[in-house]
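Lab notebook: predicted structure, single chain.

Context: the supervisor wants predicted structures on file for every construct in the current expression panel, including those that have not yet been purified. This is the next one on the list. No modifications to the sequence; it matches the entry in the shared construct table.
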Amino acid sequence: MTIASLEADEIATIEGYLNEQVSQSRLVEMGLLPGTPVRLIKKIPLNGPVEIKVRDFYLSLRRKDAQNILVKK
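Prediction complete. Output recorded below exactly as produced.
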């Protein structure tokens, strides 16, 4: 399961990443580390970005990046 597959207001914990080493290092720099809880706030239709809450801040991620972050409910 990935962040992109969550529904609005669902909370999950980051487990790891799929491939793409470049985006993985960028995601880690934004604080998206394994073991961190995240909440999906909303998805923009037509493959638009997703908005998540991590710790006490909000992030908008490209749908492609959200599909590379593995989570567990």
